[in-house]
């Protein structure tokens, strides 16, 4: 577990991702306590995403080098804009949806907040997949890592999307059929996220392979805190404050296999 959490002694830059990560957790706790649909909640949403995307870029830079950090930012943002712009124009691969004006300025119809949200979760998803697949046979490790990262990335959206629909940030033209317990988000969205995740994670994997310093210069604790809190903390908020029990249950169900796998890994390394 030391590789997950610890910054190397005397390496002050290794602590940099922790400040925005902790602030994100505190801000996310405030989200369900603010007025639904109000300007304060909109501001909290923006702050969460800005902090989360900062964690990803700072951690990628500190742990793998400036080229990787810049690449993570550019690759993720470009992929997000392309997929979202195509989705808005054609309905593929997510289904037909529209964004509200509450998310602010756009590029090709895509609110700036959206690629930042992808950035917030893409890098932690890849890091978690790297950890989960480290014992896979070498020849199969990369495709396994990409597939697991895409699944983690899509799983995060299972929790997020009902919350954002509830907040009025986007609307689905045909929200059914959806996952059991979620009647506001179609299954096509999950399929689209899996496809987009596979493309993005394959690109990030190639990026890290070509640019990253080895070994990483710090642990992965800060971005994994973001991922864990946005999933399990989000599920808690959905169950206790936001009136979204279906997505709360799905958040827990999707997290349990990951937690079990990490526990088994930790026991195996003792």
TrEMBL record:
Keywords: Membrane, Transmembrane, Transmembrane helix. It holds the Pfam family Caroten_synth. The chain crosses the membrane at residues 12-31, 43-62, 69-94, 106-126, 146-170, 190-214, 221-241, 247-264. This is Putative membrane protein. It comes from Geodermatophilus siccatus.
């Amino acid at each position: 577990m030391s590789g997950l959490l610890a910054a190397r002694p005397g390496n002050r830059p290794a602590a940099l991702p922790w400040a925005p990560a902790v602030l994100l957790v505190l801000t996310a706790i405030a989200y369900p306590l603010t007025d639904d649909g109000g300007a304060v909640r909109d501001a909290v949403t923006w702050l969460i995403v800005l902090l989360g995307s900062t964690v990803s870029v700072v951690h990628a830079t500190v742990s793998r080098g400036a080229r990787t950090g810049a690449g993570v930012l550019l690759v993720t943002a470009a992929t997000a804009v392309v997929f979202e712009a195509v989705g808005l124009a054609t309905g593929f691969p997510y289904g037909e949806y529209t964004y509200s004006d509450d998310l602010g300025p756009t590029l090709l119809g895509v609110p700036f907040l959206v690629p930042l949200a992808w950035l917030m979760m893409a890098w932690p998803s890849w890091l978690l997949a790297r950890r989960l697949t480290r014992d896979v046979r070498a020849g199969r490790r990369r495709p396994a890592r990409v597939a697991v990262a895409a699944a983690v990335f899509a799983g995060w959206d299972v929790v997020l999307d009902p919350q954002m629909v509830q907040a009025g940030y986007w609307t689905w033209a045909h929200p059914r059929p959806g996952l059991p317990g979620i009647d506001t988000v179609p299954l096509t969205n999950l399929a689209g996220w899996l496809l987009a995740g596979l493309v993005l994670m394959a690109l990030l994997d190639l990026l890290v392979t070509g640019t990253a310093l080895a070994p990483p210069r710090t642990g992965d604790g800060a971005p994994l805190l973001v991922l864990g809190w946005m999933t399990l903390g989000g599920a808690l908020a959905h169950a206790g404050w936001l009136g979204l029990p279906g997505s709360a249950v799905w958040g827990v169900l999707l997290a349990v296999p990951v937690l079990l796998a990490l526990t088994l890994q930790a026991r195996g390394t003792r």
